[in-house]
Structure formats: structure tokens, C-alpha cells
Hints:
Distance between the termini: 169 Å
CATH class of the domain at 464-746: Alpha Beta
CATH topology of the domain at 464-746: Leucine-rich repeat, LRR (right-handed beta-alpha superhelix)
Radius of gyration: 39 Å
CATH superfamily of the domain at 464-746: Ribonuclease Inhibitor
Number of helices: 8
Amino acid sequence: xxxxxxxxxxxxxxxxxxxxxxxxxxxxxxxxxxxxxxxxxxxxxxxxxxxxxxxxxxxxxxxxxxxxxxxxxxxxxxxxxxxxxxxxxxxxxxxxxxxxxxxxxxxxxxxxxxxxxxxxxxxxxxxxxxxxxxxxxxxxxxxxxxxxxxxxxxxxxxxxxxxxxxxxxxxxxxxxxxxxxxxxxxxxxxxxxxxxxxxxxxxxxxxxxxxxxxxxxxxxxxxxxxxxxxxxxxxxxxxxxxxxxxxxxxxxxxxxxxxxxxxxxxxxxxxxxxxxxxxxxxxxxxxxxxxxxxxxxxxxxxxxxxxxxxxxxxxxxxxxxxxxxxxxxxxxxxxxxxxxxxxxxxxxxxxxxxxxxxxxxxxxxxxxxxxxxxxxxxxxxxxxxxxxxxxxxxxxxxxxxxxxxxxxxxxxxxxxxxxxxxxxxxxxxxxxxxxxxxxxxxxxxxxxxxxxxxxxxxxxxxxxxxxxxxxxxxxxxxxxxxxxxxxxxxxxxxxxxxxxxxxxxxxxxxxxxxxxxxxxxxxxxxxxxxxxxxxxxxxxxxxxxxxxxxxxxxxxxxxxxxxxxxxxxxxxxxxxxxxxxxxxxxxxxxxxxxxxxxxxxxxxxxxxxxxxxxxxxxxxxxxxxxxxxxxxxxxxxxxxxxxxxxxxxxxxxxxxxxxxxxxxxxxxxxxxxxxxxxxxxxxxxxxxxxxxxxxxxxxxxxxxxxxxxxxxxxxxxxxxxxxxxxxxxxxxxxxxxxxxxxxxxxxxxxxxxxxxxxxxxxxxxxxxxxxxxxxxxxxxxxxxxxxxxxxxxxxxxxxx
Length: 800
């Protein structure tokens, strides 16, 4: 009798022999399924990855994206990406022939905004269905509820608009992962009791409304819950605190309200990431001595929640924190000393927009790489940072003293420094070669003095240089021409001298140039017209003289009146830290007032040459700037007419030509700028009647004041208005008809030319044509010559 041990050994040998033999056999494609795949291919256009090029021979199990069972040869997995669906009906019908399909991935395709085919609900063997980012529209069909073996369903990054509770019925008890984020799903979140196996629920970036269903607490196996970026409101249910397996909880960017207490976390012992940010009506009422059930949070986001007024002490227990975000959390407290040593893993610390006070110690031995404590009440010197830090944002505080300590460390990874709006003073250090990868430097609104250091020219990746509102002197360093990545130079409000350098025209990526409020002199260089990408050009409040160069037709960005979605991202120096945009701010003259521009700075289109000593005419090329929003040429010595085609500047919102020596009539095309919200033509020599339009008559009298020859609404009526229609100026009509606008000196020159032609050549031509006139003229000249000779001789004799 064979022993049990012998039977077991023989059984193992038989299995191994089967595996060895079957491993040598090539899996054969089943003809019916091969035909179905070829029919499926005929409904597609392989546009992206060219994976379907291998679908040619008879062995479909060797085709790209196709996997067959080693035991049966049936197709069990299909992955097709990067195609355009030209016949959805044929595609869906062909898939039904794959009766053993368990894995179907049709992500990153273009379905042409069709609904999900209802026939997919007949593929009962499916365990994994992914149709992510495939341009699907319409509703999620209830037939998907028939897929009782489904464990993973991913329909994210589409344009799906609705989903019914029947779709998510108890036929889906095996579902473990449900991803519907980045769609347009609306209505309430369906009841969730029917998912006892669910581990991941992704519903973020939709349009869900209403409250979080209480049934969320029945998902006892849930590990990840993402409901961010919806319009959810109401209270956060206490049942969330029963999810003992939960690791990631994200309820950010909603309109949730009410109190979050210790009860919401009572069983969340495995919680690693918590994000309640951007729910401004959410209040955290946590006892100061609370000991959370979780110990190992790696990330905590409470931005714009009501956390304060005191700094939450329970954070001290989280020794694994890597990211701490308490921006705008209504904290009015002194920063606790333990914060800087709570976690050896802390890499990102964001405390901006609170009222936190205190000092910051030496951080060079910490793990902090990115820190934003802007707009608080921190004081003391600028701390030292680790050598591998990437972002240092300390603006809007009371830091004081020198920043020479920045020279003590080589920061090879540092990209963004913002020390603006503090009490810092002294020279700007000349050690920027130690920070070779710096992208943005903002030292604005401090008390820095001395010259702008030449070592800034070593920063070849520098995109934004903001130093306005200091006491800097000297000239712009010549080395800045080497910073070819510069898109923004803002050095307004200093004491810079010298002329505007011609090399500024070599910075071809420059979009914002602010030289406002300095002591610059000389002329505006012609090279400025090489800045084809310029959007903001401010040279106001200086001592610039001479004429304005007439070459603005080269400003291609300002020539476009359409602001596209791309414009939002055109300005690279805008940097993002945890979805908070920073591009500092700049101050400009806007509609007659000093205005600050923050996140909208990248969309501003402005030219300001005001308060200088500029002469000559208004350049005609201004009329090509169809996208310009604000033009200020006031307080100069400009002469001549307003350019007749000024109406081409269709989106102009602010126009200031006041305090010049301009004359003539206001061109009728100015009335065609329907967006004009601010106009100042005062203190000039304009004459004639103000053109009639809804726009020009809506401005105050002060917009036209101190122009003695100007009349018409809103000023007093012109003489004779009640008796007869106003008589147009013949000279202006002639110029408008010809499309020409001459200055006074140009008109004098033209008159002299015509006088010479008709006077001189008229006489000479007559002498040539008639001989008797010629003889009489020269006899007269001889007689006159003799008379002058006698008179001179007599005069000389008497004088002697």
C-alpha cells in the first residue's frame, strides 16, 4: 500500500511535469476571438502609440495589448490606448465576443464624446474596467451594475455628467476601487451602503452638491476617500470617525460647515493624510490636551479652516509629518519652539496669512526644503536654511537686518526667494553665483541700499527680478543682459540713475519692465522695440527726454486684443506651492490712482511714459496695439494731434494724455472705444466740439478741463450749436480724408516747399517762356545794381 507521503510526492511530480510540458506549448489564438479583435480594430484609428500595427498575424495572443490564458488560450486582458474611435457600435459589439475578458483598459483614447456603451454591462467576467481620460460624455449607464465580479472601475478624467444610485447598486458588492474624479457629475452623492468591499473612493473634481451621506460610515474597509473640489455643504458626518482602515481623507475645496471635533477622528488610527483645506466655514474645536488616535500623519492640510486662535498643540504628537499646511487658518499666536523639531521628516511648512509672531531659529540642520511664512508677524534676522532648500518665502513680516547670511551656504537647489515687504536693510549681497538655479528673486519694499549687484548676471535661469520700493542707486548692471530667461524686471521706486541701457532690447523674453519712479535720464532707446513679448512697459516718473520712438508695431503680444487661456501660463515666474500662486506684486498707475497688482499681474497690458520730459508727437504706431488696456502719456511736453486711428485700440480701458501741449480736435474714432472706463485729456490745447457718443459724454467735466477751445457735452455748448450744425474743420477733414495727421512744424515745412515751387519756379518759368520779360528783368537788375553802387560810394565818402 502506497503511503500518504508517496502519493503526495507523485502528485507534485505530475503537476510539475504538466507545467513543464505546457510551458513548452505555444498559446494558440482562438479564431473567433481573433476575428472579434480585428473587427474591434476596424472601428478604431491608431493615432498615438501605433500599438495596433502588430495586429496582423494569426497569433492574436502575441499582439500588443492582448493577453491570453496560458491554460485555455482565451483572451483575458485587453489594453488599447491612444486611439480614436470612429465606429463605437462596431467596437462595443466586437468586445461582447470576448466572453472570458477580465481586464479591459481603454484609457487615453478619443471616444468623440459618446456615452459609455450600455453593452459593456454584458461582459460579466470583467474584474477591472478602466476608461480613463477618453472623452466620454453623458451618464454612467446603470447596466454597469450588472458587472458583479468588478473589483476596479475607473472612469475618471472624462465629461460624464450624471450617475444614478441604481448604477451603484448591491450588484457591485465586490468593488474595491471606484474612480470617478475629474468629471462633471452633479447631484447628490449616491447612497453608499452597497459597497462592503470598497477600499478606494475617488469622487473629486466634480459638481456634487448636498451633504456627505451618513452611509459613508458603512464602508468599513475604506482606505482612501477623496471628495475634494465639489460643492458639498453641510456638516461632516461623525460616521467618518468609524472608518478604522482609513488612511487618506480629502474633503478640501468644498463648502462644508460646522464643527470638526475629536469625535470625527475617534477610530482613525491608521490616518496618514488629512486635507480639510479651503472650507472657510469649517471650525476645528479640538481640546488643547487632545491626544489623537493616529500617530503617524505624513501630511496635514488645514488651509482656510478656522483652526485658531491658538497654534494646535496636538500636531506635536505627529512625528512623521512631511507636509504641514496651516495657511490662513486664523491663528493668532506665538510660534511654538517645538514646531521646528517636531518631525525629522518635515520638508514643507506653510504658515502664511496668519498673525503668527516670534522668531525663526537656525534651520540649516533641519529637513525643511520649502517654507512659506509670508504675511505674519515674524521678526528678527533671516534664518539660515538647509543647503538643499528649494523655496524660501518670508514676505510681509518684520524681519530686519542684513541678508548677507545668505552667502554662507551654496544653495544649489534653491529656486524661489521672496523677502519682500519686510524691514531688511543694507547692501544687496554680491554672492548670487552661490544660488545658480534661482528662478525668482523678490526683495521689494525693504530698505536695501547701494547698487544692484553684478553677480545677478550669473543667474541664467532667473525669470523674475523684483526689487521695487528700496533705496537702490547706480545704474542697471551690464551683466543683466546675460539673464536671457528674464521675463520680469521690476526696479521701480528706487534711486537708479543713468540712461536706459540699450542692451535691455536683448532680453527677448521680457514681458514686464518697470523702471518707474527713478532718476533715469536721456532718451528712450530704439532697442526697446525689440521686446516683442512685452506686456507691461512702465518708465514713468523719471527725467527722460527727446521723442518717443515710433516702433510699437513690433510689440506682437500687445497687438493682439484676445487674451487666451494660454496667457494665464505664459508668465513662467509665477510659481505654485501647494496650489497657491505667487508672483509677488507690482504697483502701477491705473486710472489715475496708484494700484497694486497681484495674481492678475500676468494678464495686465500697460504702457506708461508719464511724468517725464518727452517731446514730439504721439507715435502713430500706438494705434497698432489692439490689445493694450492702459496708456498713460500724461505730464510731458508732447505736441501735435491725437492720432486719428486711436479707435483701433479697441480694448483700451484707461487713457491719460493730460498735462501736455496737444492741440487740434478730438478724433471721432476715440468714441469707438466702447471699453474706455477712464479718460483724462485735461490741461492741453484741444479745440472744437467733443465728438458725440455715449462713451465720451459719460466722463466728468474734469476729463476735458483746461482746454480753452474745447466745447460740447459735458462742457458748455459750442457757439452756434442751437442755430446750425457744427461746421467741420476743413483742415482736419482734409487730413482725415487722406488718412494723414501732420504736426505744426511739418505743415510749415510743406507750406515752404509749395511756396518755393510756385514762387521761384513760377517766375523762372515765365522768363524762360517770354523773351521780352527776360530782357526787361535783367535791364532792371543792371539799373538797380548801378544805383546801389552809387549809394554805397557816396556813403563811404561821407563816413571817411
